[in-house]
Amino acid sequence: MFINYRMAYVDLNPSSPSMQPGQLLARGVARHLVSHGFVCVEELVPARGLRVDIMALGPKGEIWVVECKSSRADFTSDNKWQGYLEWADRFFWAVDQDFPTELLPDDTGLIIGDAYGGEIIRMGPETRLAPARRKVMVQKFATHAARRLHLLRDPDLHPDWD
After folding, report:
1. DSSP strand E in the chain: where?
2. Cα Rg for the chain, rounded, in angstroms?
3. CA neighbor of 161 nearest in space, from 3, 4, 6
4. Angle 59-65-68 (CA atoms, 0-180°, nearest 5)?
5. CA angle, residues 80, 7, 34, in degrees to nearest 5
6. Which of 35, 45, 100, 110 has its CA 20 to 30 A from that of 120?
7. Which of these, 61, 54, 128, 51, lies nearest to 88 by C-alpha position?
8. What is the pLDDT of residues 2-28, one digit of tens each?
9. pTM (2 decimals)?
10. What is the dihedral sign for C-alpha 41, 47, 52, 57?
11. 20-58 pLDDT, tens per residue?
């Protein structure tokens, strides 16, 4: 089953063969973060023109952003990633074991993963969000998660969400 959510088609079948490499990587990374007490949503829009691959909310209220890169070309064509830094306490790249990690900035976090799990190789530096920004992001996270759940439960709904 597919839903059109904010102009991004999301495959709700986790075993679907139509999942792209980046989506499979995101699934594995989210599984790993869940094992650390985080909850995750994919493709969250923190601000107009930005869409993070994974936003994770931790057990102590920490907010992490993870950008999944499936290839060198995927990484080199990404010119928005620095705009994500102001929306999280920590920023990570997630790549598979064959990705040339020397391309990634040393001052960012690194997760190596696949469709089934992952491992934090390098912790991203912490830059704590201001309380007002944190409140906005937790609200966006909750709204995003609730909308996804609602559309999963009622796929025939045609909401007018921006």
Report:
1. 2-5, 8-11, 39-44, 52-57, 63-68, 90-95, 109-114, 117-122
2. 15
3. 6
4. 125
5. 70
6. 45
7. 128
8. 444 343 445 555 555 588 888 999 999
9. 0.86
10. negative
11. 888 999 999 999 999 999 999 999 999 999 999 999 999
